[in-house]
Design a protein that fits this description.
There is one protein chain. This protein is mainly beta and 339 residues long. It has a single domain, classed as Porin, CATH 2.40.160. The chain has a twelve-stranded antiparallel β-barrel with strand order 1-2-3-5-6-7-8-10-11-13-14-15. It has a two-stranded antiparallel sheet with strand order 9-12. A hairpin with a 1-residue loop joins strand 14 and strand 15. The protein is globular and about 65 Å long. The relative contact order is 0.18.
Length: 339
């Protein structure tokens, strides 16, 4: 023992410690590839056909059903992220959810627009499986079924202009109220413990009866997320970066009440995440992750059908140009009922 802690012994000891830290560094840096930046509160691609054309005064119910699947996780360079064992990081991710939205539009006018409010609530299931351990306890699979938040906007304004050819809807701020139910041991936790504030602008232009061009613009501001769930054996607090995202759609009416279209979305994290309260020795990993901005572009076909006061849409979306998140394939079914 004494000989080991001689000068040469201490050098060997430091070299051994450095070697262990190097191995752990490579391991944890690789696991940080699991990280997806931003708050990602809004389910990208939820809207497509005529989001700017708000319903008439009264109450409207919209039900969104969503299914998503991924078999590849993209890193900061857009390449397939690898596990330290040399395999691709991700085996599969599955998500399924149902969201109900209630829209109330009044006859009260403000700046030429009808005043209204809307409210969202829903349930979401997520399941993920990796090709190696990605958590401090060595787990490879994670599942959760929960309600992450409800969404409310007290100020919704809707315009119908140019004899029905131009429609605009804006929410001063969609507020995501978290249920503070995040699972601290689950990196795919559905529950949330931070707020999101999201101004919204949706525009629909119909130059003819047959053609429709729509987009919905959003920008997200997120509050502090305490005890962020990371793949490292430490706790950290995080303020997710700000995000710009938009849903879009182009459609053509082939026969009365039936449209076909191309829909999609673009998502881009704009500012860095900010980590704090990180345990000593892990700051470099979290500092590296702060600059990893998530991004995705998606495109796919869609169908729209209207029968009296009911509307139905069915859409598919495939993501491209993905950074720092799973590369998703999505299906949406939406039902609208105007009371």
């Amino acid at each position: 023992m004494t000989a080991f802690f001689s000068r040469s012994g201490r050098s060997c000891f430091r070299a051994a410690v450095f070697g262990v830290m190097l191995v752990l560094g490579v391991f944890f840096f690789s696991l940080s590839m699991v990280y997806a930046g931003g708050g990602q509160a809004y389910p990208n691609g939820a809207e497509a056909f005529m989001p700017g054309a708000a319903p008439p005064p009264g109450l409207t119910m919209i039900n969104y059903f969503f299914w998503g699947h991924a078999e590849d996780f993209k890193d900061d360079n857009g390449d397939t992220a690898k596990h330290p064992n040399g395999k691709d990081l991700l085996n599969r991710v599955d998500a399924m959810g149902d969201l109900v939205r209630l829209i109330w539009i009044s006859n009260y006018k403000f700046l030429g627009a009808n005043y209204g409010q809307h409210f969202f609530a829903g349930l979401l299931y997520t399941g993920s499986n990796f090709k190696g351990p990605v958590s401090p306890d060595g787990s490879e699979s994670f599942y959760d079924f929960n309600s992450p938040y409800f969404i409310y906007s007290p100020i919704l304004l809707t315009w119908h202009l140019m004899q029905g050819r131009l429609h605009i809807a804006t929410s001063l701020c969609d507020i995501y109220f978290p249920f503070d139910n995040e699972d601290e041991n689950n990196i795919t936790s559905v529950g949330r413990n931070f707020w999101t504030f999201e101004p919204v602008l949706a525009v629909t232009w119909m130059p003819t009866k047959a053609w429709e061009f729509s987009t919905k613009f959003m920008y997200d501001f997120n509050t502090r997320q305490n005890d962020y769930v990371s793949p490292f054996p430490v706790t950290a607090d995080r303020t997710p970066g700000q995000e710009f995202h938009m849903d879009f759609n182009v459609s053509y009416m082939v026969i009365d009440n039936l449209r076909i279209g191309i829909n999609g979305y673009y998502y881009q994290q704009v500012t860095d995440d900010d980590f704090g309260g990180v345990s000593d020795g892990f700051e470099p990993f979290f500092k590296e992750m702060e600059g990893w901005h998530s991004r995705a572009l998606a495109l796919g076909p869609g169908l729209f059908y209207q029968h009296k006061n009911m509307m139905f849409t069915l859409r598919y979306q495939h993501e491209f140009a993905v950074r720092n998140k799973p590369e998703m394939q999505n299906m949406w079914f939406k039902f609208i009922y105007v009371f």
